[in-house]
Structure formats: C-alpha cells, structure tokens
Amino acid sequence: MLELIGDENMKLSEHLTDCDSDLRKLILRISEVTKKIAKGFASRQSYSDTKNVYGEQQMAMDKWADEVIIKDLKGSGIVRYLASEEQPEVLEFKDAAGNLGVTLDPLDGSSLIDVNLAVGTIVGIYRGNVLSPGNQMVGAMYVLYGPLTVLTYTVKKGVHEFVLDDNGEFVMLKENIRIPDGKIYAPGALRKEYLPFHTKFIEKLEADGYKLRFSGSFVADVHQILHKGGVFTYPGFTGKESGKLRLLFEANPMGFIVTQAGGAASDGRKEILSIRPGVVSQRTPVYIGGKKEIDLIQKYSAEACNTGD
Ligand code: FDP
C-alpha cells in the first residue's frame, strides 16, 4: 500500500499554480502526453520496428513515444529548443512564441519494455539553450510507468509526486519529498571493469551493509533511491571512462531532482550539474543519491588522483 503524504485530492494542475505560466503549461502538457504513452504499452509492447499483419511498419515503443512527445511539444508554442535522446541534433521550433528548452529521454530503460519492468520518461527544462550546465535548469520531471504511473516534478520549490488515478487524473501522492538516509546501492557496469577507486567505494558500501537493488532502468532505480535513500551509480569503467549514461537526458534531470530533494549528484569528482556539455550526446559517470554517499566517492576519487591510482 502506498503511503499518501499530502493532500491526496489535489490535482497536478492545482499544485502548479505557484509557478511561471509557461512552466505550468509545459508540465501539464507533458503529463497529458504521458497518459497516452502509459496506455500505449499494452498494444505496442512487443513492437520493435517490425511489420504488422497489414504489412505496415510498426515503430518500437521508444521511437513512438519520442514522436508523440515531440509532436506535442512542437505544437505547444512554448518550446523553442528540444534535444531528445532519440534525435541526433537539437531541434529548434522557430515559430514558438515561448523560449523554453527541453531535454527528453522519451523512454528510459527501454530494453526492459519486453519484460514488463518499470521504465520512464525523463525531462529537463531550461530557459533557452539546452547545451548548458544542469544547474541552469528551471525545472525537471519524470514519469515512471510501473504498476502505477507516477509523475515527479520540481520547479525548484520542492520535489512533488503525483499518481495517475482511475479517472485519468494525476493526483498528489507525496509533497516535498526529501531523500532519506538509506542503505541501498544500485551499481551499474561490469564489476571486472571497475576503476580502483570505484571498487573501494562499492566494497565500503557492502561492508557497511548496503543492499544491492539494480533493475537496469535508470529512472526506476533513481526513483527508488529518492524514496529509500542510498546511491545509484553507473561509473566510468576500464575502456570507457565516461561511462554509459547521457549527461543531458539522464544524469542532469534526475540529478537535479535528487539534489532539490536534499541529495547530491556527482561524476565521482565534481557535481554533475556543474558540467558544461560540449555535445548533445555527451556521457558522464553517474553517482546520484544521499550527500553522505556522494561525499564518500568524491573523497575516494580525490585520494586516487593524489596517489595516481
Ligand atoms: P536502456 O539501455 O535499457 O535504455 O541508459 C539507458 C539504460 O537502459 C539505463 O536506463 C540503465 O540504467 C542502463 O542503460 C542499463 O545498462 P546496462 O544494461 O549496462 O546495465
């Protein structure tokens, strides 16, 4: 049973009254379009660029979600720049009256769609250029499609969570989420390819009794850490020191949300949100979680730097 903390009758639209009108409009539009995506799983789950019985090409769920969201945001008139993980370049909608910049991971964790594990849509929101450090974000949100569809957002006034109810309405689940102290670690990458300071970090967590919980869906794994505490990590590793995850689409928005909830986000050496991206597809090692865990990895990596390890 999910614990309701906050006014369970409050709708997302009512909660967004104390924020700039373009941000409100954007978050509400994304909430509407993700309802469509949540419904799309039943009919599209197994599609992966195959032909249907009529010989028509069927799009994979992640590509379909990308198309649906881009089409909607293009029509919104408030979004000028849109960078999507599924697109090679930043899109510019020159007719837009507004100037919002959006980063979009339409369906994070998409390799888990066919086994029905939780996946999600991740959005970062900027004023103007999206090729900016994450600390320039004015808001961020994600929608997690699990047994329930939940939407978490921040516009730098706390982190709030809503659940899609039986009437098709996002209603409040939890207001002002703060990351608790917790003992969960979600470690990505292959252990045999860990860098020495990362191995030391993981071994310390294990010695301290942290429990391993890694689903393979970044958005779901960070969602769990936000609620239960601990740390998510997808580190740099031997042969790929920049790691796997994308700075713009994954690390920044989720790092921003967890930071707004009292946690922290690091590439192992410095705050993720301070990194100025060079290219849209930039990758970064990722550590997101409680301040205590993030301080620890930064301490170990600084020591490794000093000793040349
Ligand atoms: P996916 O490839 O299924 O889209 O960056 C995408 C991501 O999933 C993350 O959601 C997840 O944390 C990571 O990749 C999982 O990678 P591994 O398969 O290497 O564990």
Model description:
Strand 11 (184-187), helix 4 (196-207) and strand 12 (211-212) form a beta-alpha-beta unit. The chain starts with 11 loop residues before the first helix and ends with a helix. By secondary structure, the protein is α+β, with helices and mostly antiparallel strands. Strands 4-3-5-6-7-8-9-10 form an 8-stranded mixed beta sheet, sandwiched between helices. The chain has a 5-stranded mixed beta sheet with strand order 12-11-13-15-14, sandwiched between helices. Helix 2 packs antiparallel against helix 3 (61-76) and helix 4 packs antiparallel against helix 7. The chain is 32% helix and 23% strand. The protein is globular, with a radius of gyration of 19 Å. The mean pLDDT is 93.
* Helical run tally: 7
Strand arrangement, largest sheet? 4-3-5-6-7-8-9-10
Instruction: Provide mean pLDDT, rounded.
Output: 93
How much helix, percentage-wise, in residues?
Answer: 25-40%
* DSSP strand tally: 15
**Rg, alpha carbons:** 19 Å
Q: Into which percentage range does the β-strand content fall?
A: 15-25%
Structural class by sheet pairing and helices: alpha+beta
Which stretches are low in confidence, meaning pLDDT under 50 for 5 or more residues running? none
Distance separating the two termini? 47 Å
The run of helices and strands is HHEEHEEEEEEEEEHEHEHEEH
